[in-house]
Write a structure and sequence with these properties.
Layout (H helix, E strand, L loop, with lengths): L3 E6 L6 H10 L2 E6 L7 H8 L4 E4 L6 H8 L4 E4 L5 H6 L1 H22 L3 E7 L22 H20 L3 E6 L1 E3 L11 H11 L5 E3 L5 E2 L1 E3 H13 L5 E5 L5 E2 H12 L6 E3 L13 H7 L7 H12 L3
Family: Belongs to the NAD(P)-dependent epimerase/dehydratase family.
Organism: Actinoalloteichus caeruleus DSM 43889
Protein name: UDP-glucose 4-epimerase
């Protein structure tokens, strides 16, 4: 007997391809719902050949298609979204896909009585944090259509919980990185910029003093959190998924220099920069999900460099 069937929107993308094997290992069947605009088609075809995964190549904006595909599913993971960069370039499309898509998925899940829905939210709902580490109960100040839609998604989940008893967890992802990520991804562009220079024998160039920081969480750790949120006893919560460590851009440059084995020092471009810092308070993830990050930034970045250099 299977553990159930997971309706998984946007599951053919970078993070989804790391979550899927974990779901299959735990006995779930998976109904991928993805328009394949950014999906890994070759990998999806491998997975569908197993008979445990089916692909519904449609768009979350079409409520009838979503409703039909959710029917018979026991769980939902909702990842389908427009990226943060695209949301500022085209707010209309972002609101259409992220807001309408969220509501279509949540309403269908509530109507079909699924056991649990896991929503991919974002640490960007906090805006520029007033303190570190950032806690789930801190004030929210989303600054872009993407971030605004994620905050609204959390509010919509609460609405469907109140109205129909929908069981959900919203994971506020921090700066996800790892193998298989597209190089133009918003918060990995700095990693790729540094690596491009280092592999060409050039030092990384850092704006300001490199004090701005991110909380880099490895995609394999994040994938475990998604499955834990699907199966946790407690629900109805936003949960930070990060490491709790803020890695500055200057520290990141040093980690990558060491990983490449380059004999260079970073070059600093003296100019005023807005220093934003990020670090997650992950106590709730520990308590509710029993989850801890296992891959350190140094380990994860070194593995990324080794893969890129074919070592």
């Amino acid at each position: 007997m299977t553990a159930g069937t997971v309706f998984f929107t946007g599951g053919a993308g970078f993070i989804g391809m790391h979550v899927l094997p974990l779901l299959l290992d735990r006995g779930y069947r998976v109904r991928l719902f993805d328009n394949m605009s950014r999906g890994d088609r070759a990998r999806v075809e491998e997975l569908t050949a197993t008979g445990q995964v089916e692909l519904v190549e449609k768009d979350v904006r079409y409520g009838g298609a979503v409703r039909e595909a959710v029917r018979g599913c026991s769980h939902v993971i909702h990842f389908a979204t427009v990226s943060i960069n695209k949301s500022t370039a085209d707010p209309h499309e972002s609101i259409d896909i992220n807001m309408v898509g969220n509501n279509n998925v949540f309403a269908a899940a509530a109507d079909e009585g699924v056991r649990r829905l896991v929503f991919a939210s974002t640490a960007s709902v906090y805006g520029d944090p007033s303190r570190l580490p950032m806690h789930e109960d801190d004030p929210l100040d989303p600054l872009t259509p993407y971030c605004i839609s994620k905050r609204a998604g959390e509010d919509l989940l609460r609405f469907y919980e109140r109205r129909q008893g929908l069981s959900w967890n919203a994971l506020r992802f921090f700066n996800v990185y790892g193998p298989g990520q597209r190089i133009e991804a918003y918060y990995t562009s700095v990693i790729n910029h540094f690596l491009d220079r280092l592999t060409n024998g050039l030092p990384p160039v850092i704006d300001g003093r490199g004090e701005q920081s991110m909380d880099f969480v490895h995609v394999t750790d994040l994938a475990r959190a998604v499955v834990a949120a699907l199966e946790s006893e407690r629900a109805g919560l936003p949960i930070n998924i990060g490491t709790g460590i803020d890695t500055t851009i200057a520290q990141l440059a040093k980690i990558l220099i060491d990983a490449v084995g380059a004999e260079v020092e970073p070059r600093f471009n003296p100019r005023d920069v807005l220093v934003s810092r990020r670090a997650a308070d992950i106590r709730r993830a520990r308590e509710v999900l029993g989850w801890e990050p296992a891959v350190s930034v140094r380990e994860g970045m070194t593995a990324l460099v080794d893969a890129r250099l074919g070592r």
